[in-house]
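Hey, can you fold this one?
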Amino acid sequence: MGFLSRLTHSARIESAELETTEQIDAFIDSRALEFPTRIEDEFVQRALGLGVEGGMILDVGTRVGLIPLKILWQNDSFYAIGMDRSSAMIDRARETASAWKLEERAFFQVGDARKMRLKTAYFDLVISDSTLHVFNDPLSVLREINRVLKPKGGLLIRDLRRPSRFQIHRTIDAHAVRYGQQMRGHIETAFRAAFTRRDGNAYSVIRTGACTAP
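Sure. Predicted structure:
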């Protein structure tokens, strides 16, 4: 972090995974609220609008798998693999795929996005929503995404941006209202772990389609 960033932003912390049953239940409950549903659906529509008509999707940091499942629900020409470091999240994603009767087109696996055990140039569309801040070395994730994505594949990445010292408490308060107070601890950790504009190469766009969450 540069000198100016140290003045305007607090130091970045590491972000913990959602692992406990209570944390995962709180995350799932938050998806029923208006704001999380809206920005999730906006992400889905933006992914569908990239011009990729079908093929294989990779969702990096899939959590409970709702975004790839929503894409598959709207487009029968896609298949998807969702990857997450949390085995508990992957279990929930598989349960949801089965409940939506999409288990034959959606596959979820535990894995490290920095070292994906996936074929090079295999995926037609790679997506990742609010995941990069979990890694201290996001460039390693971006390199792996670049490796597994087809040369003319679609890419959509969205993540949080760490607010300034003057905005962070207000931002956390606002998002706790939007996502539910049970999510407050995770929201605070996520914003404090997020990168800033001045973190530079952490958000280098590999090809196209990167955006930032509100």
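The longest helix spans residues 34-48. Let me know if you want another pass with a different chain boundary.
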